[in-house]
Design a protein that fits this description.
Elements (H helix, E strand, L loop, with lengths): L8 E5 L6 H10 L3 E6 L12 E5 L5 H15 L4 E4 L15 H29 L1 E7 L12 H20 L4 E9 L5 H6 L11 H12 L10 E4 L5
Parallel strand pairs: 1-2, 1-4, 2-3, 4-5, 5-6, 6-7
Helix pairs in contact: 1-6, 2-3, 3-4
């Protein structure tokens, strides 16, 4: 059954990424108006009136607030936040991880979502409703050797989203986080050319789950940490 998001305004961060393109298309197909934020919007973006590409860097509190305020000023509301921005670094033990790498993981995977949440939540609270979905990682709950900085930043993201859910449960605002395993994206295929991709998570599946959580039928799911491991159990 097709998810109904008619009349909803959705902000998708990292809209040009391997997952972001699928999420954008799925939300558009469900009837939402999508504001797709990325640092450099690509020419392959959907050519439909209900998609609005927006170039923005969400790595600072000022930029995040300015971006969200501009969206609400234009569309009068913001119903859905799908936060997909993130990054990966691995290959070194904790003892070998340098300060710059650790800070980069915090900036990409934690600070960015904090800034966006702080900008979005006041608007959703004034409206009395909203849907927040963030992308974490399986590594947040199952850390492995050589990915300590990445795992720690994603674990902190999980804690942040669960806290948002608890702080806003007095209104019709939900906040949930998905923990996908390795996703079948062009970037991952390039980085791991010899991997068995048959067990990787399909981005379309994650996108469909995001759309469901964003819809009215997903209203009873809140503060959930949802594993999406595909065939990699």
């Amino acid at each position: 059954m097709k998810t109904d998001l008619q009349g909803k305004i959705a902000l998708v961060t990292g809209a040009d990424g391997g997952l972001g393109t699928h999420v954008t298309r799925t939300l558009l197909d469900s009837g939402a108006t999508v504001i797709g934020v990325s640092r450099n919007p690509q020419q392959s973006r959907p050519d439909v009136a209900s998609f609005v590409p927006l170039a923005a860097d969400l790595s600072s509190a000022q930029n995040a607030k300015k971006t969200v305020d501009e969206i609400v000023a234009r569309f009068a509301k913001l119903d859905i936040l799908a936060h997909l921005v993130g990054g990966f670094a691995g290959g070194k033990t904790i003892a070998e991880t340098d300060d710059a790498t650790f800070q980069r993981m915090l900036d990409l995977n934690l600070n960015s979502v904090f800034y966006v949440l702080r900008a979005v939540i006041p608007h959703m609270r004034r409206a009395g409703s909203g849907r927040i979905i963030a992308i974490g990682s399986r590594a947040a709950e199952e850390p492995g050797p050589g990915v300590g900085a990445y795992s720690a930043s994603k674990a902190a993201l999980v804690s942040l989203i669960k806290t948002v859910a608890l702080e806003n449960k007095d209104l019709a605002i939900t906040a949930n986080v998905l923990l996908p395993g390795t996703m079948d994206t062009p970037a991952n295929r390039k980085a791991m050319p010899g991997a068995d991709t048959s067990k990787w998570v399909q981005p379309a599946s994650v996108a469909s789950l995001i759309a469901w959580l964003a819809s009215d039928v997903g209203k009873d799911v809140n503060a959930a940490v949802i594993p999406v491991y595909g065939g990699g159990l």
